[in-house]
Input
Amino acid sequence: MSTAGTVRRQMVRIDEDLCTGCGACVSPCAEGAIRMVDGKAHVVRDELCDGAGFCLGVCPTGALTIEVREAAPFDEAAVEEHAAGAPRTYIPQVCFRCGTGEDDAPLLPVRTAGTSTWVCTRCLPSLIHG
Ligand code: SF4
Output
């Protein structure tokens, strides 16, 4: 049963013991819900996390999972207010094959050899076709 002002929904869960503070999960979160605090990733406010889980694939340690729990509803207006009021700590990512940065080509998250990383659209065809 939901308590006043909350709903039961998907949320990102961060295991602080597994988090190394690498920051890779900050950029994939379009809502800016994840911030680094004292060297660990945190969901700063429940209403900023839509529970979509785009951050999960990039975590090298498996610290990120999705859980279903009571939380404030996702709030698009709060996301806009949050983005306007607090500039994000932006950590640009690069392609694991060629080193191209995300300003020069779109990057996609991939899993390879047991790790999560990024590949650019220039390298993606050779990754698919060998
Ligand atoms: S990607 Fe994983 S290990 Fe890196 S900061 Fe985020 S939760 Fe921590």
